[in-house]
Amino acid sequence: MGGVPTMWHDILSADDLPPHGTVRAVTLGGASVPPSLVMKVREKLGAHCVIGFGQSECTIATGTRRGDAIEEICETVGRAMPHIEVRICRPSGTTLSYGEVGEICVRGPTIMEGYWNNPQATAETIDSDGFLHTGDLGEMDETGVVRIKGRLREVIIRGGENIYPPEVEEALLTHPAVAMAAVVGVEHERLGQEVGAAIQLRQGANAADTELATHVEERIVRFKVPRHWLFVDAMPLTVSGKVRKVELEGLFGRQP
């Protein structure tokens, strides 16, 4: 069984789940997968989780394996799939060193030939070496394991410091009252941007923004803690179940 995280959030909230152990494997991808969701799948279904990274333009480019350590399954998107090359690049296209954050680029027989009747968009996405520039940020370690850091356009730059939304979202999701969290950049006159968090609480749960801020500060460095909060009854989603962050950004407005 497979799907995006928001889909599995809803599935695991159901009262009539299959008997424990009936589902053998669950494939998660399409958005950042919080470790808490991986653990919940294992706890409620007794299923093995496979985390994959890909796009419509390249199908699945990386994935974890069944024998991988639980930390690797929870925190990474695994290694390149067979016959696929993956590298982490600067905007110029230069390959970065292990552990450096840059754009994830992939090459192989599964990437698209191009966008239909749009050669300009194709040239902007596939470079002269045949690598597809995904628009996703990540880093790779010496063993080839890739960690997602977020979308290139979603990086929050606060006073010159880069903040990657998935790290903040994962910290928020460890709070028992939080069902879903989406972190976006909020315009700020002096700092450029600050961190804004949209929160969907679990049914019947309560948590104030001050409580959530303290919770996050205990887990990540202070300058990454959200300064602006928005509580929603339901997240705005695309048809594929991904959070529409552009819509959330407009709800915060410009801050003085």
Briefly summarize what is shown:
The chain has helices at residues 5-12, 35-45, 70-75, 119-125, 165-173, 209-217, 245-252; strands at residues 2-3, 25-28, 48-55, 59-63, 79-80, 85-89, 102-107, 132-140, 146-151, 156-158, 161-163, 178-188, 192-201, 228-231.
- List unreliable stretches of 5+ residues: none
CATH superfamily of the largest domain: ANL, N-terminal domain
The CATH class of the largest domain, by name, is Alpha Beta
Could you report the average pLDDT, rounded to the nearest whole number?
91
Strand runs, count = 14
What's the CATH topology label of the largest domain? Rossmann fold
Could you tell me how far the N terminus lies from the C terminus, measured between alpha carbons in angstroms?
Answer: 46 Å
As for the number of domains, it is 2
Main beta sheet, described? 5 strands, mixed
Evaluate the radius of gyration. Answer: 19 Å
Identify the strand order in the major beta sheet: 1-2-3-4-5
Molecular shape = globular
Q: In CATH terms, what is the architecture of the largest domain? A: 3-Layer(aba) Sandwich
Q: Tell me the helix content.
A: 10-25%
**Class of secondary structure makeup:** alpha+beta
| Share of residues in strands | 25-35%
Number of helices: 7
Query: What letter string, H or E per element, gives the SSE order?
Result: EHEHEEHEEEHEEEEHEEHEH
